[in-house]
């Protein structure tokens, strides 16, 4: 009894599944869901039976072409595979992220943008190939300097001058000035934003080495400003006389501005920053950390649009600036995409990548075969570190690790080592990188299962490329290259390519009645002098005023020119048409041309288009006779609401 009930249930379920197939082409079923994905993407009109019948016909034609392309194995051609792979790489990018982590990074950046930080730092430099011992020594040195500062044995500024490997500290005591998000490497930025004003961070590691960061001020963001400036250069190491001359010049400019002279004009005439002088001294909008501190201080101290500073000096020279625009921080929604792009270009992108690997390791079961790893490590670690391991290893077929049920053997990692090893390579880091790369490839292989919308979109691209390639071969390109077929089609359908009745005429647009008289005299002379051209009178009459006479000659059809439509259709000079502005239209009719066939060269584009339509219709009929098409109208009409 139970078996009978189960059998009936299975039949019922199978009928429901079959009923949900809207279309079949030979043995290929297209589900209602697949059809709806396409249908609703392209339609927002009222759905009727007539409309569905028209749409399903177009859909069938599309699927028939794709089916034919597949039967011709066009999806195995290298050019197709390469093109689809290019689209796939773009499509998968949004899915290869730890979205939760990325969203936190974006929000963190925006929250930090609300404040400007002023900080100083001491750098203990490290080479990128530094050994673990060298890293420990640098860390301990930074820690000792910090302890000495905290115990007041030495001030931060003195320590910066004495110990920092950032040589600018000799001049600025390690002061970085004010900065905001994305102005420093992420680790230094984080240390600055996470340290209380007056305190010193613990040693922070970046690609440059270890940093001690002291926060000296934290204020609400001053936003962005746009200023114009006038500058007289002094340059680094300028002598007192050069500085004095630049100061005298900027003072003279200050006097002119106070007397009411225009800032832009003075900048254009006198400013020695010629790249901005030609724009009236205008500089691009900037926030803190973009300009030298002295320039920023003056720019952000201006309160009102149009305010002009007093003359001030920077390392580059003497300046006067004018506030042109001030802009506060935009809302989170307005800034979100911009922040996202900055993160991609910033060192934060590496954190995002690490977060993705951590997410994947939690999602998939990664099992390391410790014995395989240890044996390989013993054999290879020393020579990998100097970049010359040969890859000679007898246990290459052993399993190294698994991701879910997928096995990765030792030889795969060996190939990776041989491709990437160099002097200073770390075997353990290379192994971790290899596992991560395998995780990423495994994730890519699972995307079509995890994300149905990705699978649908990729299939749309796949079918679109197949459709284009085959239609181009069978219709578009063929119509252009098949010159004999095109000529025959044109001759068989020549009545479709006729000229309307035309008037061969020249229109003379004359500035006034006197010009019209000269033109008619010229036309009269042309009747007797065969080589007399219109260019002669055009050049003569337009010598002083190029708009005295305009000439247009062509074969006109009805409705093409309002003046031609007004005249009596006969040869010779038509009656003058006088316009409201007293200009005169003179028309000389050369011939009345009755309707006649166009030459192929005169209508080639239209003939090619019509020939393509013919080829496509014939092709569709051929495909419909080749493949069995069945439409489930009940399922189709279920879309009517």
Mean pLDDT: 91
Low-confidence stretches: 1-19
CA-based gyration radius: 40 Å
Q: What helical percentage do the residues reach?
A: 40-55%
What is the CATH topology descriptor of the domain at 115-220? Chitinase A, domain 3
User: What is the CATH C level class of the domain at 115-220, in words?
Assistant: Alpha Beta
Biggest sheet overview: 5 strands, antiparallel
Structure annotation, total helices: 25
User: What would you say the CATH architecture of the domain at 115-220 is?
Assistant: Roll
Distance between the termini: 41 Å
Would you count the extended β strands for me? 20
Given helix and strand content, the structural type is alpha+beta
The geometry reads as flat
Q: Beta-sheet strand percentage?
A: 15-25%
Protein architecture, described:
By secondary structure, the chain is of the alpha+beta class. Among the domains are: 115-220, Chitinase A, domain 3 (Roll); 227-327, Chitinase A, domain 3, CATH 3.10.50.40; 364-450, no CATH class; 498-597, Chitinase A, domain 3 (Roll). 53% of the residues lie in helices and 18% in strands. Helix 5 (99-113) runs antiparallel to helix 15. The chain is flat, with a radius of gyration of 40 Å. Mean pLDDT is 91; it is low at 1-19.
List the helices and strands and how they pair.
Blueprint: H1 2-19, E1 21-25, E2 28-31, H2 32-42, H3 49-71, H4 78-92, H5 99-113, E3 115-125, H6 132-150, H7 156-163, H8 169-172, E4 175-179, H9 186-193, E5 204-206, E6 209-220, E7 224-233, H10 240-258, H11 263-270, H12 274-277, H13 293-301, E8 312-314, E9 317-327, H14 332-345, H15 348-363, E10 366-368, H16 370-385, E11 399-403, E12 406-409, H17 410-420, H18 427-450, H19 452-481, H20 483-492, E13 498-499, E14 502-510, H21 513-526, H22 534-541, E15 549-557, H23 562-566, E16 572-573, E17 577-578, E18 584-593, E19 596-597, H24 604-626, E20 629-631, H25 633-637
Antiparallel strand pairs: 1-2, 1-20, 3-4, 3-6, 5-6, 7-9, 8-9, 10-11, 11-12, 13-19, 14-15, 14-18, 16-18, 17-18
